[in-house]
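Many introductory courses stop at the sequence. We go one step further.
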Amino acid sequence: MIYIVLHYNINIDCICSRFGTRPPGLKVPPMARDMGDPSDTGPKRGMTLFEEADRLQPPRSKLRRSRKQSVDAIVHKKLMDNFKDYDKVTIDAVIIEGKSLREKLTEDTQTHIDSPRDNPMGANYYRKLKELYKPSASPVLALKVNDQRLAVNDRLMKAMVAAKATIPNRAPLVEYLATGTRPNQTELVGICKYAFSLKPTITTTQLPVALDICKWMAKHAIANHYPTEMDTMLPWIDMVLVQAYIHVKKSALRLQTFIELHRNTLTLILDMSLVDKLIAAKGTWLTVSDALNKVVSSSKLGHKMFAFACEHVLAAEVKAIIDKQIEALQDQW
């Protein structure tokens, strides 16, 4: 009966919104309000920009009573029971094999509900999950605010709140990254933690934002001013640029085009003097084999961009060895 009333109310609201009026005499039962946490009266001490943006989110609507919400409730309890020592960043921002801990647990819980016998979730399951999502292995945990007294730019705070909303609006954050000044350490940590929550494999919405963060880091020379935080971010930047290269390659654009589009950002990962040397070789890879080896071994991006050239060098070297052996045999005859 509750479902019927709720469904009826939503349909009536949709109709009324279209015609700008409500039929006279129609009574609709009031919806339950989200009262929130009564103890949550203000900012928490020691809270970083990333967590503060969560706290400032508006209460979520309780109108939808679907099976997915019941699964979310089950997952919340599982997290409280089995991962109570994990912080929110580790649960939601650390991505392993394309999923956060919460997403992995939600997916497995749904599978377990559909077929509990074939998909058990006992002690062995949680032991393996904890091994996969080790808090100590999370690069996010290395990102720590050094001075809680540093103020956060108001425009950045509003942009972060919008970016982390249930229906995210990342436009204010993108605008801030394009126009904002060099961050203080508190602001940098907040943006870096948010970066880890993005999924660059989602090329339509999240990869562009991830690339904007990389460009922002290059623009403000973050490596020079905050080397510790930059060292933590380098594997993430490498991964983002690999996804960008894959996307460009699928679009049938040339390697040179990718380099031109992202040259400033590539400097965060690659020695561009060596890259330029490789491009200038115009396919004569044997003449630049030393530079090629350095670029390919330096990062996942370098390997992705020039691994094909290594195959040419290897084939040429093998051919040279074979030719030399044949020549030696001919001399013996």
